[in-house]
TrEMBL record:
Organism per entry: Cariama cristata
Taxonomy of the source species: Eukaryota, Metazoa, Chordata, Craniata, Vertebrata
Keyword entries, A-Z: Lipoprotein, Receptor
GO cellular component, one term: plasma membrane
Matches recorded under InterPro entries: 6-blade_b-propeller_TolB-like, Cueball_EGF_LRP_Nidogen, LDLR_classB_rpt
SUPFAM superfamilies associated with the record: YWTD domain
Domain of life: Eukaryota
Gene3D superfamilies noted in UniProt: TolB, C-terminal domain
GO MF entry, a single one: Wnt-protein binding
Keyword Secreted tagged: no
The name this protein goes by in its record: Low-density lipoprotein receptor-related protein 1B
Length: 179
């Protein structure tokens, strides 16, 4: 799945399949400007920062179990969000500090460091990566991902895929080759 935020005409947090199909709103009320988003892949939770409401909130992948982690002036100007173990990590764009927030109760907010011009944060650690299983976009014997001549996108599950073409090409009638 692909998870994303939108604060155009109607603010929301959404998800879709990697090929763009099955687009679903998971949050579309009591939300104003969702910016940063992070996933807990193990427990299947979506965290986001709303910079208008000065809040960090969470829901499960289906939009249920919503609650506020932390709210108020203490977390103004946040950008970027990452989850690791018991904490959320984010960047305060006002004073360029990296903050650590307890993701279960919003307490224990600590400033860890200051950086010049930081806007995003990521955690790279082996435990945050799920094990990859065999999937529909694996390279075939001819070196083509999922049998697609250009781009292979996972669809509704890891066994299904959709082929797409680079700009300037169109998908052939076989659904795999680009012309």
């Amino acid at each position: 799945k692909l998870f994303f935020t939108d604060y155009g005409n109607a603010a929301k947090v959404e998800r879709c399949d990697m090929d763009g199909m099955n687009r679903t709103r998971i949050v579309d009320s009591k939300i104003e400007q969702p910016t940063a988003l992070a996933l807990d892949l193990i427990n299947k939770f979506v965290y986001w920062v709303d910079i208008y409401l000065d809040s960090v909130e969470v829901v499960d992948y289906h939009g249920r179990k919503r609650h506020t982690i932390i709210k108020g002036r203490q977390i103004r100007h946040l950008c970027g969000l990452a989850v690791f173990e018991n904490y959320l990590y984010t960047v305060n764009s006002d004073n360029l500090s990296i903050l650590r927030i307890n993701r279960y109760n919003g307490t224990d907010v600590q400033s860890l460091a200051r950086l010049d011009n930081a806007k995003e944060i990521h955690v790279y650690q082996k435990r945050t990566q799920t094990t990859v299983r065999s999937h529909a976009c694996e390279v075939d014997p001819y070196g083509m991902p999922g049998g697609c001549s250009h781009i292979c996108l996972l669809s509704s599950n890891y066994k299904a895929r959709t082929c797409r073409c680079r700009t300037g090409f169109i998908l052939g009638s076989d659904g795999r080759s680009c012309k």
